[in-house]
Amino acid sequence: MKANIQEDLRNKNQDIENTQNTIKNDFAFTLKSTCLDENYHPSSKTRLTTNFANLARGTNRQQNLRNALNMINNRFNALAHLDNPKGDRYHVELEILTVTMSIDDQNGSNDLPMIEVLKTNIFDHKTGQKIEGVAGNNYSSYVRDYDFSILLIEHNKNKAAFSIPENFGDLHGKLYKCFVNSDTYKEHFKMSPIICLSVSGNKTYTRTEYQHPVLGFEYLQNEYSLTDEYFSKMGLKVRFFMPANSVAPMAFYHSGDLLADYTDLGLISSISTMETFQKIYRPEIYNANSVAAKIYQPSLKHEDYSLTRVEYDREERSRLAVEQGKYAEEHFIKPHKNVLEQWSANFIL
User: Fold this and answer.
1) How far is 141 from 158, CA to CA, in rounded Å?
2) Which of 92, 183, 285, 336 has its CA 20 to 30 A from that of 8?
3) 53 and 312 Cβ atoms separated by less than 8 Å
């Protein structure tokens, strides 16, 4: 009897191992790099809700991009002011990294542009050196669009109280972990990503006495947000900092040690890039005419702010998030439901 039980366990473990190997082989990541400069045109495979894609359309697309890139470079040089008397020593180059995941099962092969991030590279005019920056920064994902714009909305339709679907964000978190631990990621990047987002409009932030030389004053959040919980399933922690001469803290999602794992210039590249985008599409918070107080609650209803010279269509961004969530549902979630559920159930790093 004992021998039969052991044999059954061995067979079961072998079946699980075979399933993991099969599914692992079915997932393959490819990475494409596109230069983000004033001549950038979004490709048909770019998530159009992505901030830089939004700026790169319309009659003023080139001026939009030029103004945004100038803002990034000016902010970088202001923060990297040591041995930089004219404020023009450094130039930030941006790459759009599109990650495509291929999956093969009984329903055929499907290639989905899973994730897009920005990678910074820094050129030092004084030394002629090109310095690797940080990957992550602006983060976008088709599956996240599905989770927030389709699944979460449907789950709460006609309900009196808001709630979260069971296992919300599990698949997305495991797909992200799978990518950042893949050979594809390790071949291209030395450091783990930093994802920099706006603070939450329904949370309160309190400034501490700790001041980092680059990131600035640290703020503590009064409670976790849904985004924090969602990103925690990606293996990411969050800390909130307000850099020098900023007007509001930003959320820095990271794995490892945010203060020790990155160079000062790398952190500055993330700050200058993402603060610029925040000023453009969250001017009520990040281009406010007053600085965040010691106890701070951000609001998109704040009226005392300035606009940048960059056009941004927030209504289009919200509409496209739904469209792209539906795309992920129709081309990825539904047709590969069985293999995704198997893979997610057995995924172990």
Assistant:
1) 27
2) 336
3) no
Which pair of structure tokens corresponds to residue 258?
């945010």
| Short-list 346, 326, 331, 27, CA closest to 182 | 27
Contact 127, 152 (CB under 8 A): no
Give the pLDDT confidence of 32-58 residue by residue, as tens digits.
Answer: 998 999 998 876 654 444 556 677 777
Give, in degrees to the nearest 5, the angle at Cα 179 between 173 and 183. Answer: 155
pLDDT digits (tens, 9 = 90+) for 238-294: 999 999 999 999 999 999 999 999 999 999 999 999 999 999 989 999 999 999 999
> Cα-Cα-Cα-Cα dihedral of 301, 169, 154, 322, to 10°?
60
Write the burial class of residue 175 (CB in 10 Å: 0-12 exposed, 13-18 middle, 19+ buried). buried
Give the separation between CA 122 and CA 101, rounded to whole angstroms: 29
Question: Which amino acid, 86?
Answer: K
Q: Comparing C-alpha atoms, which of 323, 254, 346, 349 is closest to residue 18?
A: 346
Dihedral sign for Cα 66, 67, 69, 73, please.
positive
pTM, rounded to two decimals: 0.88
How far apart are alpha carbons 328 and 343 in whole angstroms? 17
pLDDT band, very low/low/confident/very high, at 233 (cuts 50, 70, 90) = very high
